[in-house]
Amino acid sequence: MNIMLFHSTYGLRPAVHAAAERLRAAGHEVVVPDLFEGRVFDTVEEGMAFNEELGRDEILKRAILAAAPHSARGLVYAGFSLGASVAQQLALGDEKARGLLLLHGTSDVPEGASVDDLPVQLHVADPDAFETHDWLTAWYLRMQRAGADIEVHRYPGAGHLYTDPELPDYDEEAAERTWATALAFLESI
Q1: Best exposed site among 38, 56, 104, 176 by fewest CB in 10 Å?
Q2: Rounded to whole angstroms, how far apart are CA atoms 126 and 124?
Q3: Pairwise CA distance, residues 21 & 118, whole Å
Q4: CA distances from 142 to 89, 90, 95, 152, 163 (A)
Q5: What span, in angstroms and rounded, lies between the C-alpha atoms of 73 and 51?
Q6: Whole-Å CA distances, 113 to 11, 24, 79, 81, 167
Q7: Structure pTM?
Q8: What average pLDDT is seen over the chain?
């Protein structure tokens, strides 16, 4: 499987490279673009401030340019938090997308979005301040209406970015369950 893996608002941290290596060890080809051009942040607030300064359009432009050379082969788009929202937007706009793996985040679903049974798997903390229950219910219904084949996995008590061992949110048990489920999902595509 060809996977385009996008980082969170913290930037391209070691945990993203470790995730890519885990996916490669399972036999997948993984591209990990650096949407922040080398910038990494110690706090979510610093990352969000940089994200706002850079602007959503610029981030999406960088993501599209990174994916373009690979998209003809049919990509699975994946990402962490902010990167998940970027992955979702690209997958919904790419008719050759083979799947969507969302870790810790979602994005608005554009009106009129349409996919043909696109396999989608979401892994999210429960509760999650960035992905509230009301938001996720509305997101799920809009994605379903768009034609996606969706699985949602919730992890009670985990922090938002619970798969990153360098962050306070880290939850080893939830992270390992997430990776086992995600790898099985990728094998099923």
Answers
A1: 38
A2: 6
A3: 25
A4: 13, 16, 18, 14, 26
A5: 29
A6: 28, 31, 20, 21, 34
A7: 0.97
A8: 97
